[in-house]
Specification:
By secondary structure, the chain is of the alpha+beta class. The chain contains 9 helices and 12 strands. It folds into 2 domains: 5-132, 3-Layer(aba) Sandwich (Aminopeptidase); 141-330, 3-Layer(aba) Sandwich (Aminopeptidase), CATH 3.40.630. Helix content is 30%, strand content 30%. The longest helix has 29 residues, at 154-182.
């Protein structure tokens, strides 16, 4: 049977027309992009209706590969337009045909290789970016968690018993941790937006960041819990990638005060019983107090995991020996060949768009 192969791109206007009026352009459906992600991208502060943000390959009218991108304006270097690739998917039955390269390459050609970046981390994405002429560096993320146990089998039941015993052993560590953190004098203010005061602090303490996100971008990221309330988001079908997190995803800005002054600002995300520190800014002199505030907050929330890209915070958490499992993950950061980056700079995580 002869195959009909089509390459289609979709603009921001197409996404809006689909979400608001249910007038999809040819082939646009939840199989191409989840409504939740389409909603997020179409509300990015830097998009225009004419910008092409989704590309897909269809074989006999069935989507077999797609990617999506969203724009951002760098402040380091100042004013540079960046296009982030937020996702890349290919039907396993069609892998090896180069469709992933086609969909990414189409958007790269649209916006220029010198303006495209990727922090997805998947090996396939890294390979495609390399083929397109980009360089990739690895960054580390530190993940603390409990062991995942399935008690349906005899081996699982034994593992469950051992895990309970492990929790008994770690209980004194937990008490010691709470006692230690209890001596740290701090207060926390929770917000669902980045206000002027917090952003002014970010500007002052972001000298190690590869990217300095603007206030509008932070507030776009914090809109992500729209999935819990927005009418449009309720159209998300169970099989779509975000639906499992609709009820468990929470994000907020926290401002940490000590001695009457603002000493730290962080963007925290709680997802699948894990506390993720996505952005963190603090005065070095108050580092231990800021770390105590963030970690104690997670303990009170009874999270089962903790994640950060900050090595100093990871070392602080590790000293308490509360989480039995500690993993260091490498994720990629692909940049144009002409992009100069100091290895001492840090790359903070993202969210709202899920590009990391």
């Amino acid at each position: 049977m002869e195959e009909s192969i089509l390459l289609r791109t979709y603009s921001v206007a197409d996404l809006k027309d689909w979400l608001i009026h249910n007038h999809p352009k040819e082939g646009l459906s939840p199989s191409v992009i989840a409504p939740a992600r389409a909603y997020a991208i179409s509300h990015n502060p830097y998009v225009r209706d004419d910008m092409k943000v989704v590309c897909a390959v269809f074989v006999n009218e069935k989507v077999v590969a797609y990617t999506a991108a969203f724009p951002e304006i760098f402040q380091k270097p100042e004013g540079r337009l960046a296009w982030w690739f937020t996702t890349l998917w290919c039907d396993p039955a069609f892998e090896g045909r180069g469709y992933g390269l086609v969909v990414v390459g189409t958007l790269v050609e649209e916006y220029g290789l010198e303006n495209c970046f990727d922090a997805e981390g998947a090996p396939e994405t890294v390979e495609i970016m390399s083929l397109l002429g980009m360089k990739t560096q690895c960054r580390q993320r530190y993940v603390f968690s409990r062991k995942k146990i399935c008690a349906d089998s005899l081996r699982g039941k034994i593992a469950w018993c051992l895990d309970k015993w492990d929790q008994v052993i770690h209980y004194p560590c937990l008490l010691k941790c709470r006692k230690t953190l209890g001596h740290s004098e701090f207060s926390i203010v929770y917000q669902q937006y980045m206000d002027d005061d917090a952003f002014s602090f970010v500007l002052t303490h972001s000298h190690k960041d590869v990217i300095l996100r603007r206030q509008e971008t932070f507030n776009w990221i914090l809109q992500y819990p729209f999935m819990q309330t927005a009418i449009l988001a309720e159209r998300t079908l169970p099989e779509n990638q975000f639906s499992s997190q609709i009820k468990s995803y929470q994000s907020s800005i926290i401002k940490i005060y000590a001695e009457g002054a603002l000493v730290g600002v962080a963007l925290l995300v709680f997802r699948q019983k894990t506390e993720c520190v996505k952005y963190l800014y603090y005065q070095e002199a108050y580092a231990s107090i800021v770390f105590s505030a963030i970690f104690s907050h997670g303990l009170k929330a009874k999270v089962e995991g903790f994640e950060t890209g900050n090595k100093s915070l990871a070392s602080f958490v590790q000293t308490f020996h509360i989480y039995p499992k500690f993993t260091v993950l490498n994720y990629s950061f692909s940049t144009p060949l002409d992009f100069v980056m100091d290895d001492g700079m840090s790359l903070q995580s993202g969210e709202g768009d899920m590009f990391v």
